[in-house]
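Case study B.
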Amino acid sequence: MAKIILDRLSEHFVAGEILETGSQHGNEWARVEPTHWRAVARFLRDDPVTALDMFIDLTCVDRLGRVPRFDVVLHLYSVGKKHRVRLLAGVPEESPAIESLVELWPGANWFEREAFDLYGVRFVDHPDLRRILMYPEFVGHPLRKDFPKEGRQPLLRRLPGSVD
Amino acid sequence: MDEPSPPPTSRRVVLGLGEAAHFVEDEMPTEAMPLNMGPSHPAMHGTVRMVLEVEGEKIRSADVQVGYLHRGFEKEAEHATWTQIFPYTDRLNYVSPMLCNVGYALAVEQLLDIDGKIPERAQFIRVIVGEISRITDHLTCLAASAMELGAFTVFFYLIKAREWLWELLEEVSGARLTHSYVRIGGVAADLSEDFCPKLREVLRRVRGAIGDADKLLTSNRIFRDRMDGIAVITRDEAIAWGLTGPVGRSAGLAYDVRKDHPYLVYDRFDFEVPVGSKGDNFDRFAVRLEEMRQSMRILEQAMDRLPAGPILIDDARVALPPKREVYNTIESMIAHFKLIMDGIVVPPGEIYSFTEGGNGELGFYIVSDGTGRPWKCRVRPPCFANTAVLNKLLPGLFVADIIPTFGMINMIGGECDR
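Model:
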């Protein structure tokens, strides 16, 4: 269906940059080496054959037990060619960081903030990386698999005269 | 409308009395004022906080803070069986819950590879209740926005129309809003005998109510002045920000999942997708108004062609067997027990499945590890992307423009924050 995207990726990038590609249930996906994250995304956006100009979604998957632990998952869509792709990049637990895509798509801003908030993955060069769904004083990253579903957070004391 | 001149920063002040009176130019200090449109605000629907920096009436910068309705949908979904997630999906976009139900069900069905085996009647019913939900979504959006601009009558007309539709959905599912009607493999219960005649009558009245609202607002000088030319989004911006649904279409981006990537039986219906040209608030209003009319066209056609047949797939690994068999055969009893206790066993894999929600491309990215509970169940919320663009739209507008702009973006807190 969108095999052309995977073919273009294989033509343009070497094996160390695109680690693996595949197609499952009609979804084409490619696993990218994290240091080439922005370069691959930029290519897919600007290449006239793939033309993946629309940013759809960015999230993380916590594959607890696997090394590297986190997968940053990006979904792109082409309005003109009507095909889409999923990009995955493995990010290690010790230093979970990856390049930010905000300069390519302004829409990625909030999605990266959410991935940082809920998983703790830092997005390098993000203009405003702070929590978005949880309150600023929240401790921990709730969607990680080792974060308990039920628990207590430290109590906050709002001092008089403080401005948020 | 002319740009008002910036507020004067100096003034002439009289000092002294009588003959000693003289004028002095006094510098008035001005500074931008931080203004908090707090999470609870009477003119904004949904819990969202906007920290604005205003100078006079003009907004210099805006920081839209969402997350006040974050209830941990994904975290809960990781601990619930596939069927137990349906009530959670109701509470995502809670003004068009059937569309969220359907979107999630389609995603899991694709992972199970049974998406081609859903009974036809179930697919038609899903389209029918989905389009009714879409109409209620747009009715709520337009009614609330009109009320916030002062058009109370329009609010009453459209909310009354919404009530008639909710009565029908309540008859079908048991609840006005939290339906949990769709199941993996079909729908939970069949439509009643007189559902279609009742729906036709309701649609006739809803058409009248929408027509009344149209006549009251579309050529209304006050309404147009407040909506025209405000908060313009270009087509390129819509693509770069990932804006879909009525917001994206009003900017000229002709992308509708029902037309471009048809699912269920949408490819059998004859309907149009309204696309705007200017991308301002009024275009968003007009696109939604017309979309309701097109949804009613789909409903009429779906009711005309509604086939008879089962409403749930006949596969005991996926759907609960009929009660008569559960109580009388051991196989069905075991299947029932396993489905309830362990959940549907979905083979390991991942999928991103997308449908046209009330606000745009509603995506479900589901990762299965082979058990009865998802490893990850992510919602790609269309109004998360749509609300993010407000940070770019608001600076330069007046404070009073926030109300129609935010109303026409239609941020549904449940979907944005999950």
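The helical segments of chain A are 3-12, 37-46, 108-119. The remaining cases will be described in the next quarterly update.
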